[in-house]
Write a structure and sequence with these properties.
Helices cover 43% and strands 18% of the residues. It contains eleven helices and ten strands. Strands 4-3-1-2-9-10 form a six-stranded parallel sheet. A four-stranded parallel sheet has the order 6-5-7-8, sandwiched between helices. The chain is globular and about 50 Å long.
């Protein structure tokens, strides 16, 4: 294994940085390529057929260009729809991102769990399968919120996001049947941990669970004993089209990302 072979992270936008951050805590010297499909953003409003064909094709191009040792689909929508297609198309390990229903079921006292994601993610049969396997005694209340995706991108771009905006985008989850008994929310979109502070202020009596730390541990396990550079190399951020917004340079710098490219 070439020590300079990167980890490739892929998302529709910059929400997958919530997966990259805990990964770098475990693998601080890992070379990083983070790809944001700005030309296709947002995925939550696209058809399943479109995502199932688009994601493998884009990842194939990224693998040819950057020769990663492992790919991470840091997007719940893309993972629940296209993960099997990607694994069939690529000859390297691929880690997906799925709603963290298992850890949520372990901590819920009321046995009513909210699943907050994109419209495409929350309607997937994959979510039903996870619930049947890991939370059979729980009631799942789902809400797809494209507004929260936009708010997360806005926050990361350094613009103001208010607790009131986040509350309004999330409130339908609690207004749904059984919503008043929710005590745990699965953040089933990698953008949403970026808003955990605002969510906590808006709904303080709820526990929030996301898959980022678990995904990071899975990545670290798969690359265990592989060689790395002696110091962290400069990370790369790749957009597939015009940048959605220019993220804060300080945030990227804290993650070691210094190059911004277009595919």
């Amino acid at each position: 294994m070439n020590p300079n072979a990167p980890l490739l992270f892929f998302d529709s936008g910059v929400g997958g940085l919530s997966v990259l951050r805990p990964t770098l805590e475990l693998l601080p010297n890992a070379p990083i390529v983070y790809a944001a499909d700005s030309a296709g953003f947002p995925y939550g409003n696209r058809s399943e057929a479109e995502i199932a064909s688009r994601v493998p094709a884009l990842l194939g191009r990224l693998v040819e260009r950057f020769h990663p040792r492992l790919a991470v689909i840091a997007c719940n929508t893309a993972s629940t729809i296209a993960l099997d297609h990607v694994r069939s198309a690529l000859d390297l390990p691929v880690v997906g991102t799925v709603p963290a229903i298992k850890p949520a079921a372990k901590i819920s006292k009321t046995r009513v769990i909210g699943v907050l994601g994109t419209e495409a993610t929350v309607r997937q049969p994959y979510v039903d399968d996870l619930a049947a396997k890991f939370a059979p005694d729980c009631t799942l209340v789902r809400h797809g919120s494209p507004e929260l995706v936009e708010l997360a991108e806005t926050k990361l771009a350094g613009e103001e996001v208010t607790v009131e905006q986040v509350r309004a985008a999330t409130q339908p989850l609690f207004d749904a049947p059984h919503g008043d008994r929710i005590d745990t929310i699965v953040l089933a979109c990698t953008h949403f941990p970026l808003l955990e502070e605002e969510l906590g202020a808006a709904f303080p009596r709820v526990a929030y669970v996301d898959g980022g730390p678990g995904i990071a541990r899975r990545i670290a396990h798969l690359v265990e004993d592989e060689p790395w550079p002696s110091s962290p190399p400069e990370g790369v951020l790749v957009f597939t089209g015009p940048p959605i917004r220019r993220p804060l340079e300080s945030i990227l710098a804290n993650l070691g990302i210094g190059q911004i490219l277009t595919l």
